[in-house]
Amino acid sequence: MKLKTTTILIAALLGGALTGGAQAQDTISVGIDAAFAPFAFVKPDGEISGYEYDLVRAVCEEMKVTCNITNVPWDGIFASLEAGNIQWIGTGVTISDARKAQYTMSDTVYRVGLVMLVKKDSPVSSYEQLKGKTIGTLASTEPWYAFGKAKLGDGVDIRGYDSVNAAVLDLDAGRVEAVIGDNLQLQDQFVSKGGYKFVADPEYAPEFTGAGRGWVFKKGNTQLAEKVNAALAKVVANGTHAELGKKYFATPVPAK
Q: How far apart are CA 160 and CA 108, in angstroms?
C-alpha cells in the first residue's frame, strides 16, 4: 500500500490581518519510522499517527513552518538524512556521544527506560536466567545492545530485527528467549494486552539511555536544530508535551 505524505501547513498572517495572503514559509522534510506504535504508526487509511508524529506536528506549529512528514523505515532513515531526502529524523533516538560525533542532535525530547520482554508463562524472573540465551532487539540500536551485554555478558547472542514486532514474533516462536526494547512501547503493545511480562523494572541508567531521546539532523545543521529546540521548549512549557504523553501512554512522558 502506498503511504501518504502528511503535510502540516501553518500559515502566518501578515500584520495579523488578511491583507496580502499567507506569508511565504520554510518547508522542512521530516522522516519518521511509522512502524513503532504508539510512537508512530500507519492508520488503515494510510495516514501516519502516534506520539512522535503529534509531537513533531506541535513543534512545527510552534515554529510556524510547513513540515512534510513521511514514513521512512528505520533501516534507511539515516541514509535518507545523509542523502538530503529528509532534513530531520523525527523518530527519537538515544542521545549518545557516538551519535553526536556523526550528527547534530536536538535537546532531549523525552526519556524512556530499557527492559527485557518475555512471555507471561516464562519461568524467567531475573537477568541471570537469560545468560547464555539468544535475545532479540531492533537492529542498529547501539545502547540496547550495550544494555543486553551489560546484563547478560559480552558473549550474549543478540539478534537484530527490522522491527520490534518481528523480534516478538520470534519470541513467540521460541527462536529467542527475550526481546530488548523500551518500556513505553513494549508496555503499550504487548504487556498491556496480556501474554507478556518484563523480566525486571525499567533501567534508566545514563550509560544505556544517555541523555534521553532526541531528534537527528545532518551534521552542522545547527540552525534548524536550534529552531527546533526553541519550539520544543515552548511545547514542553505550555503543557502540550505532557498532554501527548497522557494521550498515548496514560501518563506524562518525562521531557528531561
A: 25
